[in-house]
Amino acid sequence: MAEYIAPLEDQKFVINELAGLDRISRLPGFEHATEDLLEPILDEAARFASEVLSPTNTIGDREGCQVENGGVTVPAEFAAAYRLFAESGWQGLDCSQDYDGMGLPSLIGSATTEMWQGANLALSLCPMLNSGAIDALEVHASDELKQLYLPKLVSGEWCGTMDLTEPQAGSDLGRIRVQAVPDGDHYKISGTKIFITWGDHEMAENVIHLVLARLRDAPEGVKGLSMFLIPKFLVNDDGSLGDRNDVFVTSVEHKLGIHASPTCVLNYGDNDGAVGYLVGEENRGLACMFTMMNLARLQVGIQGLAISERAYQAARDYAKDRVQGQVLGSRDPARIIQHADIRRMLMTMKSLIEAMRATAYVTASALDTAHHADDADARSAALERSALLTPIVKGWLTEVAQELTSIGVQVHGGTGYVEETGAAQHLRDARILPIYEGTNGIQANDLVGRKLLADSGRGIQRMLGEMAETDAGLAARGPDLDSIRNALATGRQRLEQATNWLLDQGHDVPARVDSAAFNYMMLAGTVVGAWQMARAAEVAHGKLAAGGGNADFYNAKILTAKYYAEQIVPRSAAYLDAAVSDSSPAMDLPEDQF
Ligand SMILES: Cc1cc2nc3c(=O)[nH]c(=O)nc-3n(C[C@H](O)[C@H](O)[C@H](O)COP(=O)(O)OP(=O)(O)OC[C@H]3O[C@@H](n4cnc5c(N)ncnc54)[C@H](O)[C@@H]3O)c2cc1C
Hints:
alpha+beta, Butyryl-Coa Dehydrogenase, subunit A, domain 1, Butyryl-CoA Dehydrogenase, subunit A, domain 2, 3 domains, five-stranded mixed beta barrel, two-stranded antiparallel sheet, 20 helices, 58% helix, 12% strand, globular, binds flavin-adenine dinucleotide
C-alpha cells in the first residue's frame, strides 16, 4: 500500500497565488513568514508526513485502541510517531512565540494540518484538538494558567482535549449537566462526558481537558455554561506534575473508522471531585469554547480535504496500473486510466480536491488577517469573511469527502471493497467528518441563521461582489477561459438568487429556511469552489503567458478548472432548485407515516 505523498506543488501554489502569502507576511507579527523560510519547512513537513506518520495509518486501523488498567493504550508505533512529532516542534508551528511556538500564520498551519491528516487521520486528531485548546487558553485563560500550561501544550509534551458531549447533550449544549462547585481557588467538577477524542492516553505526560460544565445556580441552557481546565495530573506551581486528578476513562467506543483515535467516556469526580480551574468568566463558557470550535471546524473541513487527497492518490496509482478491457478502436489491453468513466471519476476527485484546498486555505488566510492586521476595517472585513466561510469549509468539504472517498473505492473495483488496498479505510475514516464538531445540519443552520440572516446578507453580498470582480481578470486573458468565466457567472447568479430567496423568506417562514439550509450550504460551497478554481486558472494562464515555471502544472490547472466549470458547477442548479422549491411535504407528512 503506497504511502501518502503531500501534494506540495498545489499546496504551495494555493498558499502563494490564491491565499496571498506575500500579503500575510507583511502583517504585524508575521514578518518572518516569508516564502524563503516556509519552503524548507513545508518540504520537511511533507517528508515527515510520508515517512513517519503515514506508515502508522494501517497499523492503527487494524490494532485500534483499548482501555487497560484504567488507561487507554494505542499502538506502540503511534506513540513513537507522536514523540517525534512533538520533538520536531510541529505542534508549535502556528502557536505564539510568547509560549515558544514558531508564530507562523494559520495559512501555513492549514497546509501542515492537511499533511498530518492525509498521512494519518486517527493519530493527527490528537495534535489537532491540542491546537484548539491552545487557542482557547491563549484568548481566554488567566495569565497564571497560560504560564503554567501553554508552554507544555505548545511543545506537545502535554495534550489538550475538548469535552462538551454528554449522553443527553450532543448538538444541544444547553442540556449539559456536568456540575462545578467552587472550592477555594478552584472548582470541583463531577459528572460524565462521552465521545471525548483522545480523552486519555500515554503518548503525552499529561492530558489537559477543557470542559463545559454548569455551576449550581447557573441560568438554564447555554447561558449557564462555564469552561474549566481539568488536568489529568495536577500541576505544581513550578510546572512539575503532582497528584492524579479525579478524572478517569471508563471505556472507548468501537467505531466505523479512525479506530486508533480513542473516543472516550470520561468520569469526573467519582471520588473527591475533579479539580478544575475556571477559564474566562463564569457562565461565559460557550464563548470560550467557540474559540476552540471555530478553529476545529476549519480543521475538520481540512480533514475532509486531506482524506479525499489520500483516496485520490490511491485511486490514481491503481488506475495507472490495473489492466482491463480495451479502449474503443484498439485491441491492445488498456490500463483502466484510459477508460473515459475512470477519467470522469479521477477528474471529479482532482477538481473538487483542488477547489476544496483553495477554499480552506483562503479561509485560513482570512483568519490570519482578522487576528493580525493593524487596520481595524481590514480586521473586521476578514473576520466577517472567515466567519462566513467556516461553516462552508466544515460542511461542504466534509460532504464532498464522502463522495470522493467512495469514488476512491469505486475506481479500485472489488479490491476497493476489501481492506488490503486501504481505499475502504479512507471511506470509513471519512464518515465521522460530517458528524463531529457540529453536524453538517448544524453548520447549515449556522450559515443561514448566523452568517446570512443575522447580517441581512451583507457579508455574502460582499463576497458575491468580489466574485464578479474576478470576471474582469478572466476576460482579460482572452477567450481561452470563457467556459470558466461563464460557469462562474452562472454559479454566482444562482447563489445570489438563493440568497435573495432566503432573505425574502427571512424570519417569517423559519421551517422553509431551515429545510433550505443544507442545499444552500452545498450551493455556496460549489460556487465558492468555482470562484477559487477560476482565480487559479487566471493565475496559471498568466504564468504560461509569462513563460518559466512548471508549464505542465499550469496546463493541468487550467484543464482541471475547465472540468470543474463544466462538470461540477452544474450541480449548483440542482442545489438552487431544491433550496427554493417547496419542501413542505417533509414537514406535512404525519410522523406515523415515516
Ligand atoms: C468519533 C467521535 C469523536 C467525537 N469527539 C468529540 C470530542 O472530542 N469532544 C466532544 O465534546 N464531542 C465529541 N464527539 C461528539 C460529537 O460532536 C457529537 O456526536 C455531535 O455533535 C452530534 O451530537 P449527537 O451525537 O448527540 O447527535 P444529535 O445531536 O442527537 O443529532 C442527531 C441528528 O439530529 C440532527 N439535529 C440535532 N439537532 C438539530 C437541530 N437543532 N436542527 C437540525 N438538526 C438537528 C443532527 O444534525 C443529527 O443529524 C465525537 C463524536 C464521535 C462519534
